[in-house]
Amino acid sequence: MDTTPTTLPVRVHSHYRSIKKLGSWTEARAFEVRGRRGSIVLDLRSPLIGDGDIEIDVDLDHAMLKLLVPEDAGVDHWDLRFLGRGRVKDWTGTNGEGRRVVIRGEMRHAEIRVHRGGIAMLSAMFTREYVKDVRRAHREGGFPTIDDPTRVA
User: Fold this and answer.
1) pLDDT string in tens for the chain (153-residue length)
2) 3-state secondary structure 2-56
3) Which of 107, 117, 135, 143, CA to CA, is 20 to 30 A from 22?
C-alpha cells in the first residue's frame, strides 16, 4: 500500500457500533478499516475518487464490512486471511473490467458484503442518511446524491 505523506490511507474504525460513509465522502484510494463487533458501510462509487486501484486493508473481528461499488468493479481478495468463520459475499459473483478494489488483511469470524449497481443504490437508500439527503435536496430544490454519488447535486 502506498503510504507517502500525500496519500495516507483513510482510517475507519468501528468498535461496537455502526459506521456509514455514504455518498461523495472522500477522494482517497487507500483505506484502513478496523472493526470489532460492529458494522461498517463504505461507499466507493464516488466520481471524486481518483483513477487507479482502491486498496482496503482490513482487520475485522466479529464484524461486517459492506462495500458499495460500481457495477463493473472487480474485487480482488486473494491476500485476505480468514481465521475462524468468515467469507466475502459477492452477490453477483462476477468481477467486471472496471475499477479494481483490492482487499488485504485479516478477518476473524467476520464478513465482507459486496453490493454493486442497483443493490448498492438500495443499500444506500434504506438509511437515515438518505432520508436527510432527500430532505436537504427538497429544501434546496436539488436532487439527492447518496443513492447515486455520480449525480450532481
Assistant:
1) 554 445 789 999 999 999 999 999 999 999 999 999 999 999 999 999 989 999 999 999 999 999 999 999 999 999 999 999 999 999 776 777 888 999 999 999 999 999 998 999 999 999 999 999 999 999 999 999 999 998 865
2) CCCHHHCCEEEEEECCEEEECCCCCCCCEEEEEEECCEEEEECCCCCCCCCCEEE
3) 107
Q: Which three cell numbers stand for residue 56?
A: 482496503
DSSP string, 98-139: S-EEEEEEEEEEEEEEEEEHHHHHHHHHSSHHHHHHHHHHHH
Give the three-class secondary structure for 60. Answer: strand
Based on its alpha-carbon atoms, the radius of gyration of the chain, rounded to whole angstroms, reads 15
pTM of the entire predicted model: 0.91
By the 8 A CB rule, do 145 and 151 touch?
yes
Length of the chain: 153
Helix (H) or strand (E) holding 84: strand 80-90
Burial of 152 (0-12, 13-18, 19+ CB in 10 A): exposed
